Every structure is written in structure tokens, then in C-alpha cells.
Amino acid sequence: MDRICSKEKKASIAVYVPAESDFVLKNSLVTAWPGDAGEAVLEGCFPAQSVWAEVGKRLIRKRSAVLGLLLIVLLCLMAVFGPEMNRYTYSEQNLNRKNLAPGVQILEKTRIINEEETPEIKYWFGSDGFGRDIWTRTWVGTRISLMIALSAAMINMVIGISYGMISGYFGGRTDMLMQRFLEIVHGIPRLVVITLLLLVMRPGMMTIILALVLTEWMGMSRVVRAEVLRVKEQEFILASRTLGAGSIRIMVREILPNSLGPILTQVMLSVPAAIFAEAFLSFAGLGIPAPQCSLGSLIFDGFNCFTLYPYQIIPPAAVMVMLMLGFYLTADALREVLSLKR
Questions:
Q1: Can you name the residues that pair with 127 across neighbouring β-strands?
Q2: Tell me, what DSSP letter sits at residue 122?
Q3: What is the DSSP-derived secondary structure letter of residue 117?
């Protein structure tokens, strides 16, 4: 009896003929091209989307990332256009107007032939001990600090990626020697390197950038090396080697694009670290020389007269806090989003 039932089932299966509708994807839009009668194509079944487009959408949904990006964009715009909002320059001095409080209006009389003019003078953030406008100096200092931090971060990224990728990809004795050299360089105190560098070169923006480059690229190289060690053991790297790809092509075309997430996060974190390092150098007396200014030098000047004129330290300190907060919020959100991607 069981054999008869099984034969009937086999017969029913053999008789079934697949229809064309069995091979149409569900929830798909089927349209016909003009002029092709009776011929249909699938359209819009699986819309293509870039991985980085998905990362951007996730990043925009996070409030912390939006807040961080808004702070960065706003402060960058003020660094560009802020000094042009009034008629004072960052180096203009007038000892008759020194240490004025923010928003105080004073009238100066100037005699022109038989007429008198009384122009209104107002410092939005007040004036410092030399009668210079703190508003203009704050945004000029923000511009210089951003230029130093971004330049150092970009150079550190290039050096760190090159060093870490070579060390992690070739491995073996090459990796061992490069890592021992890295440990020796990392063991030298930063202040010693900067002091020796400033004894040879003149204090200025380029000297500070070079000092930050010599002392800050190690962190990037370690991040890149860890990513290379993770990626180079995957199957698509073996497939590239099998197809005859060289080491440089594999590192540039295969490993680097798959390691961009941690690299971008490290770059975002290195910018506020460079800003803070520049402020530390200013407190140590190794910062931007006068009359030029940076956020660190402005905070140092305000700290020297904090007990008498506390308002002078508030604008540069607030701008530095908001700038670092913006980069840290964006970097933290970017790291979380990229970890979900992986």
C-alpha cells in the first residue's frame, strides 16, 4: 500500500510543469520596454545603494553627530568670516582702549576743521591689555589653530598609513624591526622633542606643525597595522594574490578601502588632540609668537590677567571647548556607525 502511494506521488510530481510566473520575484515591478511586445523586464527589485551612502544616512539620524557637525561647520565659518565683521584687525593696538569690558561703548571726539565727530567704539568681546579687539583675535586664533590641527592630522594620516600598512602587510622580521623602532620613538618625551626642535628652528606655525607630526603619527600607524592584520587574512586578498596582483596593488586597492572606517575615526580624534597640544605648547611658552595668535596663546594671555579681567579668557576657552566637543561627538558617532557596518 505504501509503495502504491509513493508511486502516485512520484507520478504527480513528474506531471507538474513549471510556469513562467514561478520565476518572477515577489514584490517586484514588471514593466515592458516600448516596442518589445510581450517582453517584460524586472525593474527596481533590489535598488543599489553605496555602503558609504548608508553610513551617511545612519550618521544623520544620530543627534550627537548632527550636533557635532553643526558646531564644526559654524566655528569654521566664523573662523573664515568672523574677523571681517568689524573694522579692527588682530594686531591693531591702542593703549587708550585697553582692558575694556565686552559691549562697552565709548565716544571719541576728533576735531575736523570747525566740526566735531563723535564716532562710536564698541568691542563685542572686549579688549586686551594692549587695546586689541578680542573678537577679531579669537576668530583669527581659531583659524590658525584649525590650520595647524588639520595640517598635522593630514600629514600624520599619510605617514601613519604608510608605516602601519608596510609593517602589518609584510609581517615577520620587517614588522618586528618597525615596531621596535616605533616603541623607541614613542618612549622619547614629546616636550623634549619640541624643545630641541625649537632650538634649531624659529617659533612659528610651521615649527609647531612639524613638532606635532614628529610626535603624533604613532597612534595612526598602530591603528592601521591592526586593520591590515585583520583584513589581509580574508579570502578576497587570497583571490587577488592568486590572480597575480602585486603587493602595492593589494595594499592600495584592497586593504586600504576596507580599513577606512577606523582611519577616519582616528583622524577625527587627532584634530582636537592637535588643538589641545598646540594650547599646551602656548602655555609652555613655545606657541605662536606675537602679534599672531592662536586659541592656546589667547587662553594663556587671559589666564595671566584672570583675577582682574576674567572676561578675556572666556571667548577663546569657549570656542576651544565647542570645537573639541564637535570633533569628539562626530568621531564617536562615526565610530559607532562604522562598527555597525562591519
A1: 133
A2: E
A3: E
Q: Is 202 helix (H, G, I), strand (E, B) or coil?
A: coil
pLDDT score for 138: 92
Q: What is the pTM of this model?
A: 0.76
The DSSP string of 4-53 is HHHHHHHHHHHH----GGGGSPTT-EEEE-TT-TT-EEEESSS----HHH
Residue carrying C-alpha cell 575615526: 265
Contact 138, 315 (CB under 8 A): yes
Decide: helix, strand or coil at residue 110.
strand
Helix axes 190-200, 205-231, angle to 10 degrees: 140
What pLDDT is stored for residue 39 in this prediction? 45
For cell 613638532, what's the residue? 211
Q: Which pairs from 47-53 meet CB under 8 Å and 24+ separation?
A: 51/341
88 burial (CB, 10 Å; 0-12 / 13-18 / 19+) is buried
DSSP letter (8 states) at residue 309: -
**Residue corresponding to grid cell 609581517:** 171
Three-state DSSP state, 208: helix
b (16+ CB within 10 A) / e for 254-281: bbbebbebbbbbbbbbbbbbbbbbbbeb
Nearest one of 333, 337, 317, 332 to 145, comparing CA atoms: 317
Give the pLDDT means over successive 10-residue stretches in the chain (342 positions). 55 64 57 46 52 75 88 93 86 83 58 44 81 90 92 91 91 90 85 78 82 86 90 85 85 86 87 87 76 87 86 91 92 80 56
Torsion of CA 44, 48, 54, 60, to 10 degrees: -50
Torsion (CA) 49, 55, 57, 62 in degrees, nearest 10: 160
65: cell is 553627530
pLDDT on residue 323: 92
